[in-house]
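Z., the sequence and structure:
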Amino acid sequence: MKVIIRTDASIEIGSGHVMRCLTIAGALRERGCHVLFMMNELPGNLIGLVQSKGFEVVHDFQPADLCIIDHYGIDERWEQSIRPFVNKIAVIDDLADRQHDCNLLLDQNTVPDFEARYDILVPSHCMKLLGPRYLIMRDEFVRERQQMRERDGTVGRLLIFMGGTDPTNETLKVLRALQKTNVTFPHIDVVVGAGNPSRIEIEKICLHEGFHFHCQIDYMASLMAQADFAIGAGGSATWERCYVGLPSLSTIVAENQIVATETAASLGAVLNTGWHEKVTVETYLQLLEALSNRQKELQEMSLNGLKLTGSPEGPNLWIKKIMELMQE
C-alpha cells in the first residue's frame, strides 16, 4: 500500500503536525506500507528530519492508496481535487472549523462536544476517531507509561519545552525567571527544536547556568518520565505530558491551542497560564517559587492526566482503523 502524507512545518506553523505524522508514518511502515511525505520548503520546515527517518519527501502530489492530511490550511476543496488520484483520504484535525471530504477523520483532543462537533463537517460515511482514546503516541511514550513511577508532587527535576519553534520566545522568558529565582532545582532540562530561532542564545544561557540543553531530540518521553514538573506550550505536547503523568504548566502560544488547554485545565490535568502575550518573566517566576507549596495539587494533576489519556482498548487504536480503511 502506498501512503502519501501532506503536512508542513515552519517557524510560524510549528513542528507538531510533522512530529505526529512521523509517528503515524512509522507505524504504517512497520505494517508494510510505502510512505512518503509531501511538504513545502518553508523556513523551519523539518524536511531534513523527515528524510533522516528514511522517508522520501516530494513537492507534488502522487497517486496513492491513501492520502493523510494534517494541515490547517487544507479543506474539502483540495481534498476533492485529489480524489481522482487516491483511493481513500484521512484527515488529522484539531479545530473543527472547516468542511472536509474524507473517509476518516482523527481528532485526539478532549474538548467540549468533541464527539459531535464534526457531524456537519464531514460526509455521513466518514469514520470519526475522536477524543483521547485515539491519542497519537510514539512507542517511546507507550513504553514509559508501562513502566513509570508514581509521582509524589515534589519537584527536583524540571523540564522546559515550549514547542519545536517557540515563536513567542517562551523558553527565554522561563530561563530569565530561573536566573532571578532563589529556588534551587537540582536538575533542569531545556529542550528546543532545530527550528527555534533563539536556540543559540538559549544554549549559551544553559551552559552558563548549568542547565542541560537538548536540541531536536528523539528521547522526549524519557525526559518527561524523569521530570517532576514541566513548563510547556499547549498543543500535542500537553497530551504527551499527561500520558506519562507529568504535572505541567501550559502556556497558550497559538489560537488552535486555546480550547484544548482550557479543557485540560478544567479537568485538573494541567495548569493554564493563559495567552502568551499576557505571560511575563514575572509570571513564570511566581509559578516556580510556588511549586514547593503545591505538592498535593501536583500529585493529583499527575493522576488526572493519566486518567484522561487512558484507553481500555490499549494505545494507538488509530493504527488498526487506518489499516482497515485501506483494506476496504
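The first strand starts at residue 2 and ends at 7. Residues 2-135+312-327 form a domain with the Rossmann fold fold (CATH 3.40.50.11190).

Let me know what you think.
H.
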